[in-house]
Amino acid sequence: MTYHVSRRSLLALGAGLGASTMLGGSALAKAPKLGTQPSYFYRFNLGNAEVDRVSDGPLPLGPPKGTFVGIPDDDVKKMLSDNFLPTDNIVLEQNSPIVNTGDRLVLFDMGVRTAPPRRYRPA
After folding, report:
1. I need a surface site. Which of 4, 63, 71, 85 has the fewest CB within 10 A?
2. At CA 110, angle to CA 109 and CA 116, rounded to 5?
């Protein structure tokens, strides 16, 4: 099989339009419809605002002993098991709310830090 490769088709490929453009075919990508809302975002109303909770994914912290300092191990295990959570591995969900008030769109970054923030010092 022989393909005619023109300068235009090579430029299209270089611009990210893909090999199917270069070869004159169409893309054959497909995926099944899920019919459910993905867990990566959830939309709800809060007063007059619309809030989207966007997940940045799980953050595994490991055994609870290093996370819950100063609390007896038995209390931590009871708290976790009472809330249907595993008692041997702490996993936090990292969520960022996006609030739409109609005339403003605000993203709250709920960042997690392990070190104290550095202070900005102008030069």
Report:
1. 4
2. 110
**pTM value?**
0.46
Interatomic CA distance for residues 23 and 56, integer angstroms: 38
Helix (H/G/I), strand (E/B), else coil: 12? helix
Give me the amino acid identity at 122: P
Note whether 70 and 64 are within 8 A (CB). Answer: no
What pLDDT was estimated at residue 41? 78
* Bridging pattern class, strands 49-62 and 41-46: antiparallel
High-pLDDT (> 90) share of the chain, %: 12
Residues in the chain predicted with pLDDT less than 50, given as ranges, are 19-21
Counting every residue written for the chain, the total comes to: 123
C-beta of residue 61 within 8 angstroms of C-beta of residue 91: yes
